[in-house]
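User: Second chain of the day. Same drill as before.
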Amino acid sequence: MNNLTDTSTWLLPLSGSAIGGGAVGFGIGYGIRKFIDLVIGLVKAVVAIFVGLFIGGVALLQYLGIITVNWSKLYALGPILYASITSGLTWLQTQIAPLMSQASSAAQTVSGNSLLSGFGIGTVSGLYLGIKKAS
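Assistant: Same format as last time:
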Protein backbone atom coordinates (compact mmCIF):
# COMPACT_ATOMS: atom_id res chain seq x y z
CA MET A 1 0.00 0.00 0.00
CA ASN A 2 1.30 3.46 -0.90
CA ASN A 3 2.19 5.66 2.08
CA LEU A 4 0.56 8.72 0.50
CA THR A 5 -2.78 7.00 -0.01
CA ASP A 6 -2.82 5.66 3.54
CA THR A 7 -3.90 8.83 5.32
CA SER A 8 -3.55 7.31 8.78
CA THR A 9 0.24 7.38 8.44
CA TRP A 10 0.57 11.09 7.72
CA LEU A 11 -2.73 12.95 8.11
CA LEU A 12 -3.63 11.88 11.64
CA PRO A 13 -0.26 12.76 13.20
CA LEU A 14 -0.17 16.05 11.29
CA SER A 15 -3.69 17.09 12.27
CA GLY A 16 -3.20 15.98 15.87
CA SER A 17 -0.04 18.01 16.28
CA ALA A 18 -1.63 20.99 14.51
CA ILE A 19 -4.58 20.93 16.91
CA GLY A 20 -2.26 20.64 19.90
CA GLY A 21 -0.08 23.44 18.57
CA GLY A 22 -3.15 25.56 17.95
CA ALA A 23 -4.31 25.12 21.54
CA VAL A 24 -0.86 25.96 22.91
CA GLY A 25 -0.52 28.96 20.59
CA PHE A 26 -3.99 30.25 21.45
CA GLY A 27 -3.24 30.10 25.15
CA ILE A 28 0.09 31.86 24.74
CA GLY A 29 -1.36 34.54 22.45
CA TYR A 30 -4.31 35.20 24.75
CA GLY A 31 -2.03 35.49 27.75
CA ILE A 32 0.41 37.81 25.95
CA ARG A 33 -2.37 40.13 24.84
CA LYS A 34 -3.94 40.30 28.30
CA PHE A 35 -0.54 40.98 29.89
CA ILE A 36 0.19 43.77 27.39
CA ASP A 37 -3.24 45.30 28.03
CA LEU A 38 -2.59 45.19 31.79
CA VAL A 39 0.84 46.82 31.45
CA ILE A 40 -0.49 49.55 29.14
CA GLY A 41 -3.36 50.27 31.53
CA LEU A 42 -0.99 50.53 34.49
CA VAL A 43 1.39 52.81 32.58
CA LYS A 44 -1.49 55.09 31.57
CA ALA A 45 -2.71 55.30 35.16
CA VAL A 46 0.75 56.04 36.56
CA VAL A 47 1.43 58.71 33.91
CA ALA A 48 -1.96 60.34 34.56
CA ILE A 49 -1.29 60.42 38.29
CA PHE A 50 2.17 61.96 37.87
CA VAL A 51 0.97 64.54 35.35
CA GLY A 52 -1.90 65.49 37.66
CA LEU A 53 0.40 65.78 40.67
CA PHE A 54 2.89 67.86 38.68
CA ILE A 55 0.26 70.30 37.42
CA GLY A 56 -1.27 70.47 40.89
CA GLY A 57 2.15 71.17 42.39
CA VAL A 58 2.84 73.92 39.85
CA ALA A 59 -0.56 75.48 40.56
CA LEU A 60 0.11 75.32 44.31
CA LEU A 61 3.50 76.97 43.90
CA GLN A 62 1.92 79.73 41.82
CA TYR A 63 -0.83 80.19 44.39
CA LEU A 64 1.76 80.54 47.15
CA GLY A 65 3.60 83.14 45.07
CA ILE A 66 6.79 81.11 44.77
CA ILE A 67 6.66 80.92 40.96
CA THR A 68 4.76 82.55 38.13
CA VAL A 69 3.40 80.42 35.30
CA ASN A 70 2.48 81.53 31.81
CA TRP A 71 -0.46 79.13 31.44
CA SER A 72 -1.19 80.11 27.82
CA LYS A 73 2.31 78.97 26.76
CA LEU A 74 1.88 75.78 28.78
CA TYR A 75 -1.42 75.04 27.04
CA ALA A 76 0.24 75.75 23.66
CA LEU A 77 2.65 72.86 24.33
CA GLY A 78 -0.20 70.33 24.27
CA PRO A 79 -0.51 69.98 20.48
CA ILE A 80 3.28 69.92 20.10
CA LEU A 81 3.61 67.10 22.62
CA TYR A 82 0.71 65.24 21.00
CA ALA A 83 2.36 65.51 17.56
CA SER A 84 5.67 64.26 18.99
CA ILE A 85 4.04 61.25 20.63
CA THR A 86 2.06 60.45 17.47
CA SER A 87 5.15 60.59 15.27
CA GLY A 88 7.03 58.41 17.74
CA LEU A 89 4.29 55.78 17.64
CA THR A 90 4.23 55.91 13.85
CA TRP A 91 8.00 55.36 13.76
CA LEU A 92 7.62 52.42 16.15
CA GLN A 93 4.97 50.85 13.91
CA THR A 94 7.26 51.17 10.88
CA GLN A 95 10.00 49.39 12.82
CA ILE A 96 7.73 46.56 13.96
CA ALA A 97 6.10 45.92 10.55
CA PRO A 98 9.23 44.31 8.98
CA LEU A 99 9.64 42.08 12.02
CA MET A 100 6.07 40.87 11.71
CA SER A 101 6.61 40.24 8.01
CA GLN A 102 9.71 38.18 8.74
CA ALA A 103 7.86 36.19 11.38
CA SER A 104 5.05 35.51 8.92
CA SER A 105 7.43 34.34 6.21
CA ALA A 106 9.26 32.15 8.71
CA ALA A 107 5.98 30.54 9.73
CA GLN A 108 5.16 29.85 6.09
CA THR A 109 8.47 28.09 5.50
CA VAL A 110 8.12 25.60 8.33
CA SER A 111 9.31 22.32 6.92
CA GLY A 112 10.78 19.02 7.95
CA ASN A 113 9.04 16.47 10.11
CA SER A 114 5.28 16.44 9.62
CA LEU A 115 4.70 16.47 13.38
CA LEU A 116 6.92 19.54 13.77
CA SER A 117 5.30 21.21 10.77
CA GLY A 118 1.81 20.63 12.08
CA PHE A 119 2.71 21.83 15.55
CA GLY A 120 4.45 24.92 14.15
CA ILE A 121 1.58 25.83 11.86
CA GLY A 122 -0.94 25.20 14.63
CA THR A 123 1.06 27.25 17.13
CA VAL A 124 1.42 30.25 14.81
CA SER A 125 -2.26 30.11 13.88
CA GLY A 126 -3.32 29.70 17.49
CA LEU A 127 -1.05 32.54 18.59
CA TYR A 128 -2.65 34.84 16.03
CA LEU A 129 -6.17 33.83 17.04
CA GLY A 130 -5.37 34.15 20.75
CA ILE A 131 -4.08 37.70 20.32
CA LYS A 132 -7.10 38.65 18.19
CA LYS A 133 -9.58 37.05 20.59
CA ALA A 134 -8.16 38.89 23.61
CA SER A 135 -8.55 42.30 21.98
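The longest helix spans residues 11-63.

User: Great, on to the next one.
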